[in-house]
Design brief:
This protein is of the alpha/beta class. The protein has helices at residues 16-24, 42-49, 69-81, 98-112, 128-139, 151-165, 177-183, 203-206, 246-264, 274-284, and strands at residues 4-9, 29-33, 60-65, 90-93, 119-123, 143-148, 170-173, 189-192, 214-217, 234-238, 241-244, 271-272. 40% of the residues lie in helices and 19% in strands. The two termini are 33 Å apart. The structure holds NADP nicotinamide-adenine-dinucleotide phosphate. NADP nicotinamide-adenine-dinucleotide phosphate is lined by residues 96-97, 101, 124, 126-130, 148-150, 153, 193-196, 198, 218-221, 246, 250, 253.
Length: 285
């Protein structure tokens, strides 16, 4: 029986990246649907749960993606609300690679040293990757702040994560190099999750920061998020700090994303969200 992955996307086009990884993760056929919301997804979910007999339901799965974390979360919850005993399929949430990218970055940081009790700053942490990474850092025992160019946006992201994961994050407004330098004063860990091609710090802004122990940067599109690093850095030492570049931990991100897709088809009851994905990332790291 063919393994069918239904890609439910909140954007106007289903993500090509997610489609490619879905095939690489073992799906035989990937069917993308765009512009999905909690109110228009019901019949699609019913199509996945009513069509195959119990023993074969594991060959149908749902992947929720898109660039809006809150919209993805709402769609993911709505999808599961239409399941009932014996009528469900495995599901995964990874809006903009949020869970898999965040999990890979934080798992690699954790593999370089304990995060517990450390002060961590997620620069430009209001996007899907930053929000989920902040949660994972907090779950490892770090004291986490996220920055945004707009205080309200940072506060909103913190509230969104508090609601979903019950973690306390601190919102910081930082809309310039100077304000980001202030934000990282006394920090032990920086995780940069800014939009592609946006430089958040230059080399001179962090090289002499005496409290800083580790840096990870998710942005692989030049200019990198953190100047003076290399996207290929794999836990190397620069100026006494351990550096993970976007491709340096991106290898784990891709392997993790593929592994999650493969696991979706093992049975029909799996829910791959931050918790399970981060657990798997730590095992794989
Ligand atoms: P995103 O939503 O596109 O952007 C994250 C945040 O960047 C935004 O919320 C915004 O924050 C800030 N930003 C945008 N333009 C800016 C500017 N000109 N100056 C300063 N800040 C700006 O990002 P994402 O989808 O979460 O992804 C985060 C990063 O991970 C991206 O660089 C993406 O390419 C990368 N990525 C890496 C991997 C990997 O394996 N390494 C995988 C997936 C994604 P405010 O508006 O709140 O300031």
């Amino acid at each position: 029986m063919k393994k069918l992955l239904f890609q439910f996307d909140t954007d106007t086009h289903p993500s090509v990246f997610d489609t490619v990884v879905a095939y690489d993760g073992g799906a035989d056929h990937v069917i993308g649907h765009a512009n999905l919301t909690p109110t228009n997804v019901r019949s699609l979910v019913e199509g996945t749960i009513f069509t195959r007999p119990p023993k074969s339901k594991k060959n149908t799965a749902i992947f929720v993606g898109g660039s809006d974390m809150e919209a993805g979360q709402a769609l993911f919850e709505a999808v599961q609300s239409y399941f009932f005993p014996s009528f469900q399929v495995s599901v995964m949430l990874d809006s903009n690679g949020s869970n898999t990218t965040a999990a890979a970055a934080v798992a690699k940081l954790a593999s370089s040293g304990s995060l517990s009790g450390k002060k961590a700053v997620v620069l430009a942490g209001t996007g899907p990757v930053g929000q989920r990474a902040a949660v994972m850092l907090a779950q490892e025992g770090a004291e986490v702040s996220i920055t945004s160019r707009h205080l309200d946006k940072a506060k909103h992201a913190c509230a969104n994560m508090k609601k979903r994961f019950n973690v306390d994050l601190t919102a910081i407004e930082a809309n310039s190099f100077d304000s980001r330098v202030t934000a990282i004063k006394g920090a032990n860990i920086i995780l940069a999750t800014g939009a592609a091609g946006v430089e958040l710090l230059k080399a001179e802004h962090w090289e002499n920061n005496s409290t800083l122990e580790m840096i990870a940067d998710a942005n692989a599109t030049p200019p990198l998020g953190i100047g003076g690093t290399d996207m290929m850095d794999k836990g190397i030492d620069r100026h006494g700090k351990i550096i993970w570049g976007a491709i340096g931990f991106g290898t784990l991100k891709l392997a993790l994303h593929r592994a999650c897709i493969e696991k979706l088809f093992e049975n029909n009851k799996q829910v791959f969200d931050a918790e399970l994905i981060f657990k798997l990332a730590k095992e794989m790291a």
